[in-house]
Amino acid sequence: MLHDYELHISKAAVTPFPLNLKLTSEGEACSNPDLYRCYVDKLNFLTHTRPDLAFVVQSLSQFMHCPKLSHIAALTHTLRYVNHASGQGILLKATDKLTLQDFSDSDWAACPSTRRSVIGYVLLLGNSPISWKSKKQSTISKSSSEAEYRAMSQASSEVTWIVRLL
C-alpha cells in the first residue's frame, strides 16, 4: 500500500494523527482527490486489525468528497506512522478468565463545524480486543456528561450484541 504513495513518507511519525489537529473543510483544494480517497479507503481496511487507526480514519473519511491540502498533510502523517509502526496490531492473549470489559470515551463537541462529539469504545474479552469503534455522534450533546453517557450507551449496545453471540 505504501510503495505507491506519491508523497514523501520516509520520515517517522510517532502518533497516528498530528497532535491537537482539528480538520475543517476550509483551505486550498487538493489537486488529486482520487489519490486521497484511495488511501483513506485502504486505511479503512487496516482498522480491522489496527484499532489505533480508527479515530484517524473516521476523521479523514469526513472529507472524501472535497479533500483540502490540510487533509493531505494529515493523511501523509498517518501513512508515515503506518510505515514506521508496521509491526503493531492486535495482540490476542490466552487467559483462563474470560471477562467481558468495555471502555468508552468521548470528545465533547470535537467537530468544529457541526459541534458534534466524537465517541470511541473498545471491548475486551479477557485481555484481547474483540470490537472497537470511533465515530461522530449523530446528535449534538449539550454537555460533556451527555456525550459520555451516549458513548457508554453505544458501547453497552455492542456488549449486548456480543453477549448474544457468545
UniProtKB/TrEMBL annotation:
InterPro entries: DNA/RNA_pol_sf. CDD domains: RNase_HI_RT_Ty1 (cd09272). This is Uncharacterized mitochondrial protein AtMg00810-like. It comes from Spinacia oleracea (Spinach).
